[in-house]
């Protein structure tokens, strides 16, 4: 298992490098990522390339027995390029032309940028692809941001011509009759920035279809820039995996769309202090399902971050717990940013394996070394194994973007939050989940959850309807299937593409005031007022944010109704409908924690999917080897001791003296404790 991360020797004198290698070996580090931000050093001017320093560090790392992930350095431009070729610099949403600085500062549609980036990637491949210890290529770094420059405007028009063929077709699909937006030619169309169509209600455009298309166009633009580097490497090296490092909570780029162009999925995981562990697990599952193979945890901090309002240290044992959580959800590496703390720059207070003073006496270094010893012992057994999920959640970038762009029905509507809320209940129940796109093969799952699937094409609706017809269980919610792939309202009884499958018609949708909820009555019971328990958590089921006024078909079963307090008291809120051989559930409101617990419990019980009960804060996940052997990870996500019943017979591979454990035996986990049962 790869254990290591970013090493930036350019920030330190050469006499420090040998010292660092000794400490990294002591910590069982077996991999370093090199050359992430070195373009200015590798190409000091337009005609000159200088690989001497990179050669030296590659030789040193190789002589110390470490593997290398080689980055292409194209995440930040050299100054000479910015000043000689201003077309490489971005223009932001407000129309400001950027000058040299920061990083990810290049326009992906700049021909100049693409030419020089591909040339550098090709030269790196020529020089280093023959290394025996090269395990992957790392193109650029943490792609981010948008551009609205003339390069992008021209490329956008060409992209629209290819997508729509004629301006009349575009006018029809976009609905440009609205507010007299009709275009006579593609040349009249500009990116939806603040000076134009994006100025109405930031970040919402007057024509949502234009904003959605620009996001899709920019996906293709950034992927295109990535691919010119990938192709330059492939001209020399046909075998070494090529990837880039994604980020969570990042709507700007559709990673599912990108998945076919990466050889292995990778992401950088930086939960804030207090982030629910289920949120982090959600993103691990998103990234794993991009390729349906193990992924690389490319970055995490071993101690603290550097860019939050306050940057708390990870508590003793927490780095280990978060690392094992990533592995439990499918990671085949544990990597850090960074190997040694920076001397200067805006990340000099970010955590590192080796602190700036070079000592091995820090708590962080000792914890990294202890985890390294564990991974050296058991990592080879884990690599290549995968979770097996009976439940899938559809996570859709178009729906995420479309609802971010929507003006109404509520500013409290948050697609990502609702997806995570439903996922959190499955995480609490220790149920493995695949977080997939709308193009996934649903036939392999017993239950498919599609919370807030706002944008649904006829094609994707047909696939989900067919899934239910053939015996699957589908869960839909308020705001499902409102718009088509162009963010234009579906016509018919909402949710129109799923009307027959869901067996409901949502006549109206009410938006609740902030912090307002509506009681929900499950199973015909009397409505109850909502009270807070001792921990200030809601103790009774309730709906929040939006409430559909649902009209069920005659053969649709009502599972819950609205309680007192609104004019629709007593009306259906949650329903179940049998269609073909399967079931479709419809939740007409967003559910608070007690309501989600009740609802998901009924869905899983009907599908025959068991919950593994644990104390709060204990998670259990299993990966299966190709030979069918089960590796079960039991993790205490909290800073308090927890008791857990061993879920199956096995041997704890992380115990100092591994012994056989019997299913059902109660065992105490220390704060942030981890067990690995074989």
TrEMBL record:
It comes from the Bacteria. Its EC number is 3.2.1.23. Belongs to the glycosyl hydrolase 42 family. It catalyses: Hydrolysis of terminal non-reducing beta-D-galactose residues in beta-D-galactosides. This is Beta-galactosidase. SUPFAM superfamilies: (Trans)glycosidases (SSF51445), Class I glutamine amidotransferase-like (SSF52317). Residues 389-609 form the Beta-galactosidase trimerisation domain.
């Amino acid at each position: 298992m790869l254990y290591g991360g970013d090493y930036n020797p350019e920030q330190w004198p050469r006499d420090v490098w040998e010292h660092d290698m000794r400490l990294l070996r002591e910590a069982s580090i077996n991999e370093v990522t090199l050359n992430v931000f070195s373009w200015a050093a590798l190409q000091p001017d337009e005609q000159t390339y200088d690989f001497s320093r990179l050669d030296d560090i590659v030789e040193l790392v190789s002589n110390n027995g470490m593997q290398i992930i080689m980055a292409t350095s194209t995440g930040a431009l050299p100054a000479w390029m910015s000043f000689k070729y201003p077309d490489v610099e971005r223009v932001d949403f407000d129309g400001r032309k950027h000058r040299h600085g920061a990083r990810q500062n290049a326009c992906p549609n700049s021909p100049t940028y693409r030419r020089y980036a591909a040339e550098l990637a090709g030269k790196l491949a020529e020089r280093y692809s023959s290394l025996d210890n090269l395990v992957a290529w790392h193109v650029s770094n943490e792609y981010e941001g948008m551009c609205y420059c003339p390069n992008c405007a021209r490329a956008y028009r060409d992209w629209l011509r290819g997508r729509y063929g004629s301006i009349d077709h575009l006018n029809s699909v976009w609905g440009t009759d609205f507010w007299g937006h009709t275009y006579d030619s593609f040349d009249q169309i500009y990116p939806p920035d603040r000076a134009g169509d994006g100025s109405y209600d930031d970040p919402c455009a007057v024509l949502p279809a234009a904003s959605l298309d620009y996001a899709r166009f920019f996906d293709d633009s950034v992927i295109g820039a990535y691919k010119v580097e990938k192709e330059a490497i492939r001209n020399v090296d046909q075998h070494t995996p090529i990837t880039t490092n994604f980020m969570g909570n990042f709507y700007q780029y559709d990673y599912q769309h990108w998945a076919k162009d990466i050889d292995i999925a990778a992401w950088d995981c930086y939960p804030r202090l207090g982030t629910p562990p289920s949120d982090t697990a959600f993103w691990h599952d998103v990234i794993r399902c991009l390729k349906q193979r193990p992924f690389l945890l490319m970055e995490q901090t071993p101690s603290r971050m550097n860019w939050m309002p306050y940057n708390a240290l990870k508590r003793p044992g927490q780095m280990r717990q978060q690392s094992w959580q990533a592995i439990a959800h499918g990671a085949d590496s544990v990597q850090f940013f960074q190997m040694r703390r920076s001397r200067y720059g805006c990340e000099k207070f970010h955590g590192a394996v080796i602190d700036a003073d070079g000592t091995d006496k820090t708590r962080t270094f000792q914890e990294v070394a202890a985890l390294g010893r564990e991974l050296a012992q058991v990592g080879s057994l884990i690599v290549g194994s995968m979770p097996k999920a009976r439940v899938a959640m559809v996570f859709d970038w178009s729906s995420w973007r479309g609802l971010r762009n929507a003006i109404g029905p509520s500013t409290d509507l948050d697609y990502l939050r609702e997806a995570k809320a439903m996922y959190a209940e499955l995480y609490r129940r220790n149920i493995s989940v695949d977080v997939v796109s709308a193009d996934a093969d649903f036939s392999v799952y017993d239950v498919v959850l599609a919370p807030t699937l706002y944008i649904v094409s006829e094609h994707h609706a047909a696939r989900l309807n067919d899934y239910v017809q053939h015996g699957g269980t589908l869960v839909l919610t308020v705001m499902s299937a409102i718009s088509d792939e162009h963010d234009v309202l579906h016509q018919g009884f909402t949710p129109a593409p799923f009307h027959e499958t869901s067996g409901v018609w949502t006549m109206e949708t009410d938006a609740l005031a902030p912090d307002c909820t509506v009681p929900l009555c499950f199973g015909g019971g009397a409505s109850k007022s909502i009270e807070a328990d001792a921990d200030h958590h809601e103790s009774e089921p309730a709906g929040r944010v939006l409430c559909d006024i649902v009209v069920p078909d005659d053969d649709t079963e009502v599972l819950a109704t609205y309680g007192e307090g609104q004019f629709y008291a007593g009306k259906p809120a949650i329903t179940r409908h049998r269609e073909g051989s399967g079931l479709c559930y419809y939740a007409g409101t967003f559910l608070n924690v007690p309501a989600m617990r009740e609802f998901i419990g009924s869905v899983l019980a009907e599908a025959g999917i068991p919950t593994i009960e644990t104390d709060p804060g204990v998670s259990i996940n299993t990966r299966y080897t190709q030979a069918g052997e089960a590796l079960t990870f039991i993790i205490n996500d909290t800073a308090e001791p927890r008791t857990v019943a061993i879920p199956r017979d096995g041997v704890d591979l992380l115990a100092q003296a591994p012994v056989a454990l019997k299913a059902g035996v109660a065992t105490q986990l220390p704060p942030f404790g981890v067990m690995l049962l074989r």
